[in-house]
């Protein structure tokens, strides 16, 4: 942060900013998007991208009202984003803290912390980032809580953690957990991981990310599709019964770690949501995290349709503005009210009259039938989606 004069002051100021942003005083789940900014190769595109990043940064702050921005991309992109946020200091809403991510963070594969060097951390701090996301175990999955404790005290990780602090950055540890074992991480295991990080790194982390990674079953899926034609109606009925039974046995909350309430009040424990937009999938993921005691959610780049194809940053900003606003909305869809407007000469029940008008329009067919589903131009294969 620009307000500090020494790395130590920068680190403490960054910790204060991140804690305030990632821990909601009202207990609501905080929402922070992860954005990958592609690196342009054309000189003209590089000039244009600076303006696009500035607009994206403003959108995240003023429209999406995201709690923190997790950014992966070039250091130049990071610098532009942080500079735009710093320009908003003293305004309302104020700057959104920016956390710099590895391009492989949270996805497994053993590359999560390999990209970090002393030079890169120095440049990230100079660019204005508040923190960096550091994956435990080199980005590889942690099969159990015991592995998590060992990874928290690993010499390479601890050295990298302390190096980030010395540069004025706040490191945020991320544990990558396979979905099959996530339910084994109870309140005690999560607390033990935080304690191990505190002991190994010399201070309590500003926050911890627990990212649950779904198992890849592409081969199994292909095999099932090949055998589908050979199934009899009886087999299909049996399969449906098994699916219903398995769904009852393994609720969504069983596939997530559980966070104790006292812990979540003292330190931000964040989860990752990777569900693609549409059908309320992102909202379901966010609700599951809330139900398991998490304090916040990182909405990963996989949520954005077509994120791998060098996304248009303006479209990305519009997407997150709509998605986060919808997820943070407390408006109930079943909420209704009736009130009299006490103006002279106006004795009608205004809400009631408005409801009658709406009903007449719907019955006329002008808005189409609810049973008709999406309009004719709805193209799910082309990336169209309903809801978040």
Instruction: List low-confidence stretches.
Output: 219-228, 242-250, 332-347
CATH class of the largest domain: Alpha Beta
What's the helix count?
14
Q: Numbering strands along the chain, what is their spatial order in the largest sheet?
A: 1-2-3-4-5-6-7-8
Q: What is the number of E strands?
A: 8
N-to-C series of helices and strands: HEHEHEHEHHEHHEHHHEHEHH
Q: In terms of quaternary structure, what is this?
A: single chain
Could you say what the CATH architecture of the largest domain is?
Answer: Alpha-Beta Barrel
**Main beta sheet, described?**
8 strands, parallel, barrel
CATH topology of the largest domain: TIM Barrel
Q: Which percent band covers the strand fraction?
A: 5-15%
Overall shape: it is globular
End-to-end C-alpha gap: 33 Å
| Helix content, binned percent | 40-55%
Q: What is the radius of gyration computed over CA atoms, rounded to a whole number of angstroms?
A: 24 Å
| Average pLDDT reading | 82
Structural class: alpha/beta
Number of spatially distinct domains: 3
């Amino acid at each position: 942060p620009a307000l500090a004069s020494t790395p130590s002051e920068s680190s403490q100021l960054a910790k204060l900013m991140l804690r305030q942003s990632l821990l909601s005083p009202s207990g609501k789940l905080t929402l922070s998007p992860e954005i990958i900014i592609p690196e342009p190769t054309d000189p003209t595109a590089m000039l244009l991208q600076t303006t696009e990043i500035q607009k994206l940064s403003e959108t995240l702050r003023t429209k999406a009202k995201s709690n923190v921005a997790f950014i992966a991309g070039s250091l130049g992109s990071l610098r532009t984003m942080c500079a735009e946020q710093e320009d908003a200091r003293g305004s309302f809403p104020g700057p959104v803290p920016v956390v710099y991510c590895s391009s492989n963070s949270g996805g497994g594969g053993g590359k999560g912390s390999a990209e970090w060097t002393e030079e890169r951390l120095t440049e990230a701090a100079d660019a204005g980032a508040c923190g960096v996301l550091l994956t435990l175990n080199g980005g590889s999955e942690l099969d159990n809580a015991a592995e998590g404790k060992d990874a928290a005290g690993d010499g390479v990780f601890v050295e990298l953690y302390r190096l980030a602090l010395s540069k004025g950055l706040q490191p945020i540890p991320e544990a990558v957990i396979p979905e099959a074992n996530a339910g084994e991480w109870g309140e005690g295991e999560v607390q033990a991981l935080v304690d191990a990080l505190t002991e190994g790194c010399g201070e309590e982390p500003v926050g911890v990310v627990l990212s649950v990674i779904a198992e890849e079953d592409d081969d199994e899926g292909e095999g099932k599709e090949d055998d589908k034609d050979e199934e009899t109606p009886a087999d299909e009925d049996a399969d449906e019964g098994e699916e219903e039974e398995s769904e009852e046995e393994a609720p969504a909350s069983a596939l997530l770690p559980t966070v104790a309430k006292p812990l979540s009040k003292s330190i931000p424990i964040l989860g990752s949501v990777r569900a693609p937009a549409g059908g309320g999938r992102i909202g379901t993921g966010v609700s599951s995290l809330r139900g398991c005691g998490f304090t916040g959610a990182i909405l990963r780049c996989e949520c954005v349709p077509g994120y791998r194809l060098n996304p248009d940053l303006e479209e990305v900003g519009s997407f997150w503005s709509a998605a986060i606003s919808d997820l943070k909305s407390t408006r109930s869809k079943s909420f209704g009210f009736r009130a009299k407007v006490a103006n002279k000469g106006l004795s009608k029940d205004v809400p009631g009259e408005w409801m009658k008008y709406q009903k007449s329009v719907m019955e006329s067919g002008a808005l189409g039938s609810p049973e008709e589903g999406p309009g004719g131009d709805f193209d799910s294969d082309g990336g169209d989606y309903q809801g978040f």
